[in-house]
Structures are given as structure tokens and as C-alpha cells.
Prior knowledge:
The structure holds 2 protein chains of 2 kinds. Chain A is mainly beta. In chain A, 6% of the residues lie in helices and 45% in strands.
Amino acid sequence: MRLDCGYTKYIVLISLMVLAGIAVTGCSYGHGKHDSCPVVRGTGDLGVVIERASGNVKIVETTRGREITRVEGLGDLSHASVVYSRDQRFAFVFGRDGGLTKIDMLAGRIAKRVIQAGNSIGGAISQDGTLIAVSNYTPGGVNVFSSDSLELIAEIPAAYGNKNSSKVVGLVEAPGKRFIFSLYDAGEIWIADMNKPANPVVTKYKNVGKLPYDALITSDGRYYIAGLFGEDGMAMLDLWRPEQGVKRILNNYGRGEIKMPVYKMPHLEGWAIADNYAFVPGIGRNDVLVLDKQTWKQVDRIPVHGQPVFVMARPDGRQVWVNFAHPNNDTVQVIDVPTRKIIKTLKPGKAVLHMEFTPRGERVWISVRDDDRLDIFDTETFARISSLDADKPSGIFFTSRANHIGL
Amino acid sequence: MKMARKRARLSVTIIVLIGFSSTIAKAGELPAERQSALLHLLKHDCGSCHGMTLKGGLGPSLLPEDLAGKPAVALERIVSDGVPGTPMPPWKTLLSPAEVSWLVNQLLQGVTDAP
């Protein structure tokens, strides 16, 4: 009898604790306006879709291919990109207008927002997840923030020669708590060591080539490669051998040929390394280039439908998906990696801007800007599984990015 | 048979001529549909470098205050021919001179409502 009493007491106590817990957390784990709360869930299958024209983002779930909620009021989101906290709960959205917005994916709301510059282009999160770096056009440089509070911790102005500011592009994170970026106007690559966050130690590589327009880092964090707009080739820095300096690769590609006009700059961020080969967009040409990852020499060129913008490997590296610049941006092509042949040409609709694979690659989400739609395709059958409405969608970013080196 | 073919050819010619003259008539004022398509192009495709609000990005600002004092002819040439040594491409392969001129005029006036 006494025993029973004891249990009852515990049950009452636990019930009270649960109720109190609900009262404290409120609806913060509920999703969407119509869901009842609280829903306790993980974030590993969530993502953010940018609605570029309206300044909103959608929070989506990849398991069921659905929208969970929409977060509004993020300013100018043209060319916006996103990185994730390592617990995959918070998304950091970099807007064109210099806005840096931290979104709570579970609560479906803005946790914090700052306007940190006049005109920005992208960002990265540090190896340990504590720092957010943003690269800016105006004023040119990199600002570093606490990922927790979004308080400014350090400013790295991109001064060069006797000029006080260069636009900064191609900002990535690298092992060793470093950020690496390129100076578009200056033609330089800088490494900022953030081990003392308030006092970054910057190493500068000068004369790397004309007009670096974007850059990438390989998924092992070893090679940083900047695409050059002003001349042929790419500038490569081996971060395991930084003392060797920046080397030029792909120097002979297209030499002597007349380039076609480029109506949209290619992106290197999503570039593909598959089967020991790197697949990169040929700038000003309707080609995907294939480089040997050991020698960084071009071994093949694959003629494609238009000028590539994103060249992205499915997570297993078996396929490479390519979208194209205006006016060929209604098309997506799929390259089979072992044969280097195009095995599928899809026409999702007007203005395909971005593609994102689910974490293990069985599906790909494609944003079709001018049709105001997101399409979800099966990557084996190429069948369109479903579509979601979206207002001028551009970038799609899934939380699985949280644990990728470089982003 | 021959006669019928001739008549058909004649009517095709007439239709083409009517079409042509109406294009000439509209050179100054592009059809509303095309205007809307051009504004869309300006916001989203030019905007990929110049910013969706045209206040600049990798490319310079295209806001009226920043273009003030630059002759329309010079701006039209930049849009048509591009700027060698920079990412600005020549648009003449995709846009007619009348369309370029209309776009430049829009920029100088300030674009208020791009779709």
C-alpha cells in the first residue's frame, strides 16, 4: 500500500513536470500555423528554400517532401545562401542587402537578425561552429560574428595596394578554424586564422590571377580553388602545403578560342568531385570539364546544353547534375560519371536556378524560379515525384550541409 | 492550282508586310507583354550581378542617381556590346536595339515595379 502511494506520488510529480515543460516551451516545437503543439522532432531532414523576390524562406522537410512553414521578413534575398549550426537547429541566411539572419528551424521563426554591411554575397561557419563569417562587396571585406549572439567579433577589410576595398568572393571555411576567401578586384587569396577570434591572423597570396569570381574547397578541406574570370585557368592553393603558394591549373583550357558571352556567372560552390575526377563548369563555353584530381590536369570535356552554372555530384558521386545560364536555363542534364555521358536531359521549366540532393541522394530538389515551383525528382528513375509551390524560389539548402567541411 | 498557290503566296506576303509595319510602328513603344518580360529580365537576370534591386553587386549600381550624367547612347552601347575584360556580356544577341534603348531609358528613369 505504501509502495502504491509512492508510485502515485512519482506519477503526479512527473505529470506536473511534463505540463510545466509544455508551459515553458509553449508552441516553440510546433510547426506551421495549423499544427497543434508541441511536436518534438529532429532537424536532420529539414531545409531552407529561398524565395528571392519576396524576402521569405520556406522551411521544408525532405522525408515527406513538404513545406513545414514560411519565415518572412529577411530583406533582399537575391543571391542568398545559407549555412547551418552544427546541431542543425539554426540556419544562418546571408542576404544581398547585407542582412545576416539566424533562423530557428524548430520554432519556425527569426531568432536574430543584423544588417552587417551594405551589400554582401555569402558566408561560412567555422569548424567549431562558433563563428559566422560574411563576405561583403560594400564595403569590401569579411565580417566575423558570434554564431550564438550575432555580435560582431572581427572585421577584416579587403584593402589592397593603395585601394581600401576589394569585393570579396568565394568565402569558405577550412580545417584549423580558418576562413579562406578571394579578392575579386585585387586578384588575391587570403587565409584568416581565427584561433584568436578577435585578432585574426591573415596570410595573403597576391597576383593569383585576374578577377577571381568564386571559389570552392574540396570536401576534405585540402584544396581551395578560385575560378578566374579575367583570364584562362583557375588558381589553386593546397592547404596541406600552403608554403608552396598558389598554383595555376587548367591553364591551357580554351586558349586561343573566342569565349561566348556569359549571361550568368557559374557557381563553384557545388562543384563535383566524383570517382577521383573533378567536374567543373567551363566558363563561357557549353562544356563541363573533367580534371584528374591527382594531377589537376584536364582529361576530358563533356559538351552540354548550355553554359553550366551549377555542376553538382550526387552524394554517392555516381551522377553529376548540371543546370545552365540564361537563355538555356529551362534545362537540367545528368552526366553518368563512369562513362562521362549525358544520360538524361530534363526540362523542369523556366529558369532553373538551383539543385539540392537529399542527404544520401535518392531525390533532388530543383527550384524553377519563373514557374514559382519546386520540383522533386527521383535520381534513379528521373521521374518527377512531386512539386511544391514557391514564390520565385532560388537556393535550396538542406541541414545535412551542417557537417560538410567548407560550408 | 497554280493560281491558288500564287494567291496564297500573295496573302502570306501581305500578312508579313502588315506584321512588319506594325513592328516599325511599335519600335518606340514595345508591346506591353515584351516590356513586362524585359523588366523581369532586368530584375532577375541583370539582377544576378547588379542586384535584384539594381543597387549593385559584382557589377555596379544601376540606380538612376548612380547613372546620372551618363549619356543614354553610351549606356546603350555598354548593354549591347558588353564591357571587354569584365563579366558584362554583350546583350545584342538577345535584345534588339529598340529593346536596349527602352531598358536604358527605364534605368535612367528608375524602375519602380519590376514583375
